[in-house]
Write a structure and sequence with these properties.
- The protein has 188 residues and is of the alpha/beta class.
- It folds into two domains: 75 residues; 97 residues, Cupredoxins -  blue copper proteins (Immunoglobulin-like), CATH 2.60.40.
- It contains six helices and eight strands.
- The strands form two sheets. The chain has a five-stranded mixed beta sheet.
- Helix 1 runs parallel beside helix 5.
- It binds copper (II) ion (CU).
- The site of copper (II) ion (CU) has 5 residues, from loops.
């Protein structure tokens, strides 16, 4: 009984993990090269789709900075009016708005040497992270047998994305789970 209930819990957790979409992606700028001189960031960004909620992660040494600037400042390589600026060596910038975002290095001539990147952020497509962790109330009750646990977990995963605030539990399921709980009490 203990093993089956533990297995049921794992199944529920796995089902919930599959249901929750991965709507936030961390993009490490330049991948393993990081934020540095001699890297083509337009090529790096060209095959990626950035959506609101994603993060840009800049990793760089202490000879660089990260500054988000306007489009005109991007063209002029000017960081004097930067929207945000950081020189901590590891900068995580959440992409909160759609449209073009411009990043340059504010150190001397690094921007004009190619240490600049412009990206276009699109709106997140149909990923409404409505708190879909409600079916935990139904799963904390005593689990039925392993055969019916599979069906219950699959039905829970299919109902969650439809913004269903309450998981419908059939009267039979309540009676059955109650009987199982009583049975487990008697056994233990
Ligand atoms: Cu630099």
């Amino acid at each position: 009984m203990a093993t089956s209930s533990a297995g049921f819990g794992v199944a529920v957790i796995l089902a919930l993990c599959c249901v929750v979409p991965s709507f936030a992606t961390d993009y490490t700028v330049g991948d393993t090269s990081g934020w540095t001189l001699g890297y083509d960031y337009s090529t790096w960004a060209s095959d990626k789709t950035f959506t609101v909620g994603d993060d840009l992660v800049f990793n760089y040494g202490n000879t660089h900075t990260v500054a988000e600037v306007s489009g005109s400042d991007y063209k002029a390589c000017s960081a004097s009016n930067a929207i945000t600026s950081d020189s901590s060596g590891s900068t995580k910038i959440p992409l909160k708005t759609t449209g073009s975002h411009y990043f340059i290095c504010g150190v001397s001539s690094h921007c004009s040497s190619g240490m600049k990147m412009s990206i276009t952020v699109t709106s997140a497509s149909s990923t409404t992270p409505s708190s879909s962790t409600t079916p935990s109330s139904g799963t904390t009750t005593s689990p039925p047998s392993s055969s019916s646990s599979n069906t219950s977990s699959t039905t829970a995963s299919t109902t969650v994305p439809e913004s269903s605030s309450s998981v419908t539990v059939s009267p039979f399921g309540v009676v059955f789970s109650t009987m199982v709980a009583i049975f487990m009490l008697i056994v233990s």
